[in-house]
Amino acid sequence: MNPPTHVLFILTYRCNLRCPYCVVFNPVRYWRPDDDVAIPPALAREELTTQQIVERVIPQCEQAGVEVIALTGGEIMVRKDAREIFRALGDSKLKWCIDTNLTFCTEEVAETIIDAGCDTVFASLDGPPEIHNKLRASPRAYKTFTEGLARLMHARAAAAESKTSVALNCVVQAGNEAAVCDVVRIAAEYGVDSVSFQLCSKLDYGEVFQADVATQALAAARELAKSLGLRMSVFPIPDPTPADLTSWFSSPPSAAFFQGCSYIYSSLRIDPSGNVIPCVEHRIGNILEEDLLDIWRGSVYESFRAQIMKTPIKACLRCCNMDSRQGSNPGIESIHPVQTN
Ligand SMILES: C[S@@+](CC[C@H](N)C(=O)[O-])C[C@H]1O[C@@H](n2cnc3c(N)ncnc32)[C@H](O)[C@@H]1O
Ligand code: SF4
Ligand code: SF4
């Protein structure tokens, strides 16, 4: 079994926002109701220390041959040691990227991200001001986001050289179907490099989604992105038709798209307490107790993989990392496209 190529490291479940659609606050906590190794939520609230991250998690990923570590949350920048962690990643041989809502992207934070050599910053924008604020349930979300983005782009421009690529990530859902072109426009206005559109994966999706409007808007956004020289991707269905989108947003989730999962053969996740999980919160082991490769190749992980390939769980049906019928795991490429300028 080859080593994992990607690690998604959930630094914290804490967040300053409460976006109603968020996977963190609508989690699939347990992968089977009778699962006796699922993680008690309280356990995952205990966070690894800076020292444990710098001296254990990062070296373990390096030794295991991991290529890319992606930091996510919650909001990673609520951790006071975020800059220290960025610097330690910069000193490692790993490629690394971060997901953020940019609320706490001060000048110092922006400079550290660039100086430490982050490969890709994925910044979350769900639409123009009114829509972004509504979907992010905060009247100041757009303002703080764009202020943080401006600081980041300024830090990149001020650096003698920078390999950091900046991408906007937009969760397509009821409420921003018609606004995807605005996201591309805003991306161009701030000088970012690419835009990814991710179909909302919330399982109990109850809102009315306008599939025709979204399909046309995504096609127009693609043209616009091309004319503005921006890379654009949609996942996990790269080029959805109205029927695809109607089906994706149907409740209960449709089984039409799932064609298997290569994510669990190439990627793993580490939760804030160091638990190694495949995707949903199912504890395979803990990085403080066992070597990463032993967990990756161990019998608990193997039996999880075997069971998924036999019978996908509900979360697979609306998962951004599935192998969809239109492409083999476009999610991984979109989530971790390490690019250099
Ligand atoms: C969980 S957030 C963590 C990082 C940070 N707090 C942020 O919002 O960017 C990581 C990414 O997942 C996206 N996301 C959250 N809930 C989602 C959902 N239900 N379906 C698809 N993407 C989702 C967010 O918009 C964000 O781009
Ligand atoms: S900012 Fe990110 S982690 Fe926080 S609630 Fe929104 S999507 Fe979730
Ligand atoms: S498709 Fe793969 S990554 Fe997604 S929930 Fe299923 S097993 Fe996990």
Ligand kinds: S-adenosylmethionine, iron/sulfur cluster
**Principal-axis shape:** globular
Roughly what is the average pLDDT, rounded to an integer?
90
CA radius of gyration is 19 Å
| Count of DSSP-assigned helices | 13
Uncertain regions spanning at least 5 consecutive residues = 328-341
Biggest β-sheet strands, sense, barrel: 10 strands, mixed
Strand order of the largest sheet: 7-6-5-4-3-2-1-8-9-10
Percent helix:
25-40%
In angstroms, what separates the terminal alpha carbons?
33 Å
Elements, N to C (H/E) = EHHEHEHEHHEHEHEHHEEEHHH
Record field, number of beta strands:
10
Structural class: alpha/beta
Task: Detail the topology: elements first, then pairings.
Blueprint: E1 6-10, H1 41-44, H2 50-64, E2 68-72, H3 82-91, E3 95-100, H4 107-115, E4 120-124, H5 129-135, H6 141-158, E5 165-172, H7 180-190, E6 194-199, H8 211-228, E7 231-235, H9 242-248, H10 263-266, E8 267-270, E9 275-277, E10 285-286, H11 292-297, H12 299-310, H13 330-335
Parallel strand pairs: 1-2, 1-8, 2-3, 3-4, 4-5, 5-6, 6-7
Antiparallel strand pairs: 8-9, 9-10
Helix pairs in contact: 2-3, 3-4, 4-6, 7-8, 8-9
Bound molecules: S-adenosylmethionine and iron/sulfur cluster (2 copies).
